[in-house]
Amino acid sequence: MSPQAYKDAREKKCTVAVIDERPYFPFLSVDGNDPATVLQAATAIVQHECNVTAFTDVQEEPVVERLSGGITNLLFLVTYSPQHKVLLRVFGAEGMIDRDIENATFAALSLKRIAPAYWGRFANGRVEQFLENTRPLLVREMGHHHLKIAQALANMHRNFAVPSHLEEYHPLQKPSLWTQLEEWLEQALQALGKFRTPQDCDKAASLSLETLHQELQWLRDTQIPSHAPVVFCHNDLLAANILLHEQNGSIQLIDFEYGGINYLTFDIANHFNEYAGGPPHDPFPNYEWLPSPAQREEFVRTYLTIYKNETPTEEAVQQMLQELHGFLLANHLYWGLWAVNQAYAEGCETFDYMEYAVNRFKQYAICKQQDK
Q1: With 169 labelled, which of 64, 105, 154, 291 sits at a CA distance of 20 to 30 A?
Q2: Cα 260 from Cα 306, distance rounded (Å)
């Protein structure tokens, strides 16, 4: 169903609506500091979805537990019994993500079994399947599982076609990279001088954001090939968004909130840059951890084998490896601008977004200089 259905439910002041075959409580909100509101929202959705019958073995008071791993969102595990648990997500990054589009997209990904099962939505979040016996990868573990990650990413790119009711929001002819960069740049320019501390204002000023329109045009004109293929991309494949099943070693991609139509190779470049680390733990990425040329080639070769459903030619492998450079550059600006806007919206007390932005911009300049 179109994301407009969520807006319609709010305008009609519905207590609960059924959208994408799942309940939506448009006026039920969760306070991340109040476990009682977490339990209230989870239970409303569980009871509506399951008619309570699936949870008849509950013996004790449900338990609410805050989970680590969320960057822009708050995550909670709600345990009704050892057999029945759900993940509750409280949305963050207010104003940076259209949650109606994102939620409808998540529902579509869930139907295709690319994302975890979707249970329902409330005003500022949703309830999802909790994946047992899994954990997020650590940054330094990504290289140990890079071939499985390549396979999972290729499977998503190959097998998820945007459904017709979402084509308006994810148009195939319009990669989101440039639109997103321009939008975040405009937001960042409007925030100049308005950050919460003088230090953050000074750091933002040092980024010379006023020159970025020309920089983006240079990237578009000279670094990104016009023939680069586009697909539905994850756009945020960092370690925390890759779950490892600890019993069978399989990989599950999660957190598709930045997902959209984009250049296929951007998704791979983004993942490679995440080898350096960053949010939610460290604002100082270590670019000595980036994948080696051999790892990149192995990843690309494995990816193309799945995506093309055939053994790739050496020419195809080398072409993708060459394409990576421009997308690696663009990716530094992408998350650098994101971090500037996060610093404005949320401040830097919990995580130093502004320092992270400074470091991504520095690495952009280093990589650009290396190409000369």
Answers
A1: 154
A2: 20
d(CA 63, CA 74): 16
Cβ atoms of 181 and 266 within 8 Å: the answer is: no
| All domains of the chain in start order, with CATH | 4-130 (no CATH), 135-370 (3.90.1200.10)
Distance CA 148, CA 3 (A): 33
Dump pLDDT digits (tens) for 95-146: 778 999 999 999 999 999 999 999 999 999 999 999 999 999 999 999 999 9
Cα-only R_g, the chain: 21
- The greatest distance separating any two alpha carbons of the chain, rounded to the nearest whole angstrom, comes to 66
Q: Is 69 left (phi over 0), alpha (psi -120 to 50) or beta?
A: left
d(CA 195, CA 142): 34
Burial class of residue 69, CB neighbours in 10 A (0-12, 13-18, 19+): middle
User: What is the rounded distance in angstroms from the CA atom of residue 276 to the CA atom of residue 279?
Assistant: 10
Place of tokens 């308005």: 194
Where would I find the H helices in the chain? 4-11, 35-50, 99-111, 146-159, 176-191, 198-205, 212-218, 264-273, 293-308, 314-346, 353-370
pTM over 0.90? The answer is yes
Contacts of 39 (CB under 8 A, 6+ apart): 62, 64, 78
